[in-house]
Design a protein that fits this description.
elongated, DRAM/TMEM150_Autophagy_Mod
């Protein structure tokens, strides 16, 4: 089985490295081109104008693909472990995979439809990506606890759950503040609210 082959651990590491590079490279180009202010710009703002928009879109789509591969490997790993331990229903594992894949589709939508070009589609993609991501990591945390102590340590489970809680807490203000914004605009002038 693919998940039991040595060497697949590079895929999640590649996902994190590639995604980080996507954000950093598009940020650097956007700042150097004068398209965004250097102090904490909105992620989508750093991928709105050419040339950084093409790089951002391409790299985030690759990240979405790597996310799909990573989640599928995790799914296969849990299925294989579950054959001997029966710690979680297979339908729960499949549901978690489907939620994760929805998040990857949301990432692809965000990458393809720039913030200023088609804002409503971009925002829906971001909502799907972040919302599904929060649900996915929470489900994976629960699955991890169910597999203890045979397949995970409690320390790993606690770390995963902490990340889940932080993600849930961060998701709430994202929704609140995004709903308060009526216009998508990068360049603001003094006097505008």
């Amino acid at each position: 089985m693919l998940c039991c082959m040595p060497g697949v651990a590079f895929v999640p590491a590649l996902l994190v490295s590639w995604s980080s590079a996507a954000f950093i490279i598009s940020y650097m180009i956007a700042v150097l081109a004068g398209h965004v202010e250097p102090l904490v710009p909105y992620i989508s703002d750093t991928g709105t104008k050419p040339p950084e928009s093409g790089i951002f879109g391409f790299m985030i789509n690759i990240s979405a693909l790597l996310g799909v591969i990573t989640m599928y490997i995790r799914y296969l790993l849990i299925e294989k472990q579950n054959e001997s331990s029966h710690f979680v229903r297979s339908s729960c594992n499949m549901f978690s995979l489907c939620i994760g894949l929805m998040g990857c589709i949301g990432m692809g939508i965000v990458a393809t439809f720039q913030e200023l070009s088609v804002p409503s589609v971009h925002d829906i993609g971001a909502l799907v990506a972040f919302g599904s991501g929060v649900v996915y990591i929470t489900l994976q945390s629960i699955i991890s606890y169910k597999s203890c102590p045979q397949w995970n340590t409690y320390f790993v489970c606690h770390i995963r759950m902490a990340i889940s809680v932080i993600s849930c807490i961060a998701f709430i203000p994202m929704i609140v503040f995004a709903s308060q914004i009526s216009m998508t605009k990068i360049d603001w002038t003094p006097g505008e609210k």
